[in-house]
Specification:
It catalyses: a primary alcohol + NADP(+) = an aldehyde + NADPH + H(+). This protein is α/β, with parallel strands linked by helices and 346 residues long. Helices cover 23% and strands 26% of the residues. The two termini are 19 Å apart. The model has no long low-confidence stretch (mean pLDDT 98). It binds NADP nicotinamide-adenine-dinucleotide phosphate and zinc ion (2 copies).
Length: 346
Amino acid sequence: MTTVAAYAAPAAKAPLERTTIERRAVREHDVLIDIKFAGICHSDIHQVREGWGEAIFPMVPGHEIAGVVSEVGPGVTRFKVGDRVGVGCMVDSCRECENCLAGKEQYCLQGQTPTYNGIGRDGEPTYGGYSEKVVVDENFVVRIPDGLALDVAAPLLCAGITLYSPLKRFGAGPGRKVAVLGMGGLGHMGVKIAHAMGAEVTVLSQSLRKKDDGLRLGADHYHATGDPKTFEELRGSFDLIVSTVSAPLDFGAYLSLLKTEGTLANVGAPEEPVSLNLFSLIGGGRSLAGSMIGGIAETQEMLDFCAEHGIGAEIELIAASEINEAYERVENSDVRYRFVIDTATI
Ligand code: NAP
Ligand code: ZN
Ligand code: ZN
């Protein structure tokens, strides 16, 4: 066991504060990672606030981890000391159900083990990336390509893969009109990735405040959803809409923006249920789909894709002492576009 410094919420809704946690000794297939950077995902905030239901405290959030391997177990074959690596939203799964065998560990039928706010298969609570070090089985660790700096790579481990996976699955590419709904941490990655895939990209944001950034990051068009004219103007326009919105939404209004048989893929995880008039689906033969992060192999594929296309996150690098303030700014849609903690400041 190693004692490491971390930032934790001691109880639901409490501010995060500096503390120490124990990391297990490296086992046969484990790697010890010196964490360099950890992104702040809106999911961290939902969970610290118990917005998704009862959670485990103390909670050390953080599932956008970038660092360097500092020790490997005797059975490790994929990594060596000094490798630049990442860890995302899960650190284990059953590895034998049909979804795990298909590389969709995020949908493990026995339940994947979340990087934090979970109980590992050894019965111990999991603690996330707002800490100095983490021990993870090598099968849940990915390689960060040399071309990507670790600070801008960290958010790819959740925000990047969460957008890459549905964009690929629903065919974002040349000749396809894709809208990204919400220009936050996930949304801005969606703009960059959909653009790199060759799609015609539209941002749908509450206002035009971030328009210049959206266009700079690769959007072809940018519209304010706060303006009712947007819904008239864009009716029937898109092959695919990816919603990253963290709050309940009028999905019916957005479904009307799809072409016939278009798809609205939702990745946002609001704390409240939404209601939907099903005529907005059956009318145009439209689909409403969901997507959660991506599998381990797909996460590696996404990192390689991002390195090839020179894509990192747009980040605001902060000290650990600024985490609580950063949470407030994320809740106010005032992040440009991902807060990343410099873990040397913990
Ligand atoms: P974020 O940085 O806060 O971005 C969310 C964006 O949603 C905001 O920037 C804002 O965009 C828009 N928004 C917020 N409140 C809104 C409202 N009331 N009405 C309309 N638009 C609103 O959060 P994030 O880290 O990208 O995460 C977004 C959501 O995805 C969270 O619920 C998170 O838990 C979830 N998530 C899901 C997965 C998954 O695997 N499915 C993975 C990670 C995160 P504008 O300012 O442009 O309007
Ligand atoms: Zn996340
Ligand atoms: Zn499984």
